[in-house]
């Protein structure tokens, strides 16, 4: 029986975060996460219920429709951001090959709790939510800075250093937790911590929230 993908939503926008911020992108958000809201009480994403359950052809058709509506077509070099939930639970070789054949550059945003096959993607962002994680290399490490106001693995600069030790990423970002219920956005303490950490750490701003886009 053909593989089906559980998908939460597909939409056209600009990548908001990290080193590729500002890039036109189709976001393919998969349903399902292997960590969940108990581990990440400040999670700002609804990934629980699949809105679509589609085979490969159906998934490609939905991505194409969104690209046509958003960008006038599947423009070569357009970013396809595989996100979730945890996209590595579902993103596989057939989907990667088919999307690349249509000209997409594939970016994945993973929590890094399980190894990611980097040959499936052109850009890998890892955003760990637990002190121990499996995927120690990639294009960017993006840590949410939970600080002192809520539970999390990043209360201070020393914790950030510990998590990032023995990792190999091209870029290192620290990002505010932007959830009012837990005291966010906590820009003040994130900026203070980036200044404490120094290079290669940089502040990641969620520019899509500033711009009012998805
Ligand atoms: S790993 Fe990511 S998607 Fe899953 S619950 Fe945590 S923040 Fe949300």
From TrEMBL:
Key word Zinc-finger present: no
Cofactor stoichiometry and binding remark: Binds 1 S-adenosyl-L-methionine per subunit. Binds 1 [4Fe-4S] cluster. The cluster is coordinated with 3 cysteines and an exchangeable S-adenosyl-L-methionine.
Protein name: 7-carboxy-7-deazaguanine synthase
Gene Ontology MF, one: magnesium ion binding
The protein's role, per its UniProt record: Catalyzes the complex heterocyclic radical-mediated conversion of 6-carboxy-5,6,7,8-tetrahydropterin (CPH4) to 7-carboxy-7-deazaguanine (CDG), a step common to the biosynthetic pathways of all 7-deazapurine-containing compounds.
Binding of [4Fe-4S] cluster, residues: 33, 40, 43
Catalysed reactions listed for this entry: 6-carboxy-5,6,7,8-tetrahydropterin + H(+) = 7-carboxy-7-carbaguanine + NH4(+)
Matches recorded under Gene3D superfamilies: Aldolase class I
Organism: Longimicrobium terrae
């Amino acid at each position: 029986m053909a593989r089906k993908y559980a998908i939460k939503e597909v939409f056209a926008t600009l990548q908001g975060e990290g080193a590729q911020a500002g890039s036109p992108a189709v976001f393919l958000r998969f349903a399902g996460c292997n960590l969940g809201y108990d581990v990440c009480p400040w999670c700002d994403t609804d990934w629980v219920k699949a809105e679509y359950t589609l085979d490969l052809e159906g998934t490609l058709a939905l991505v194409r429709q969104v690209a046509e509506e958003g960008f006038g077509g599947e423009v070569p070099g357009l970013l396809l951001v595989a996100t979730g939930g945890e996209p590595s639970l579902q993103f596989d070789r057939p989907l990667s090959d088919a999307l690349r054949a249509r000209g997409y550059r594939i970016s994945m945003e993973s929590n890094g709790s399980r190894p990611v096959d980097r040959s499936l993607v052109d850009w890998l962002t890892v955003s760990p939510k637990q002190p121990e994680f499996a995927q120690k290399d990639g294009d960017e490490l993006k840590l949410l800075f939970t600080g002192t106001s809520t539970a999390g693995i990043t209360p201070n600069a020393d914790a950030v250093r510990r998590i990032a030790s023995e990792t190999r990423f091209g870029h290192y970002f620290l990002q505010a937790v932007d959830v009012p219920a837990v005291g966010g956005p906590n820009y003040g303490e994130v900026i203070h911590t980036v200044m404490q950490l120094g290079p290669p750490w940089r502040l990641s701003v969620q520019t899509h929230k500033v711009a009012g886009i998805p």
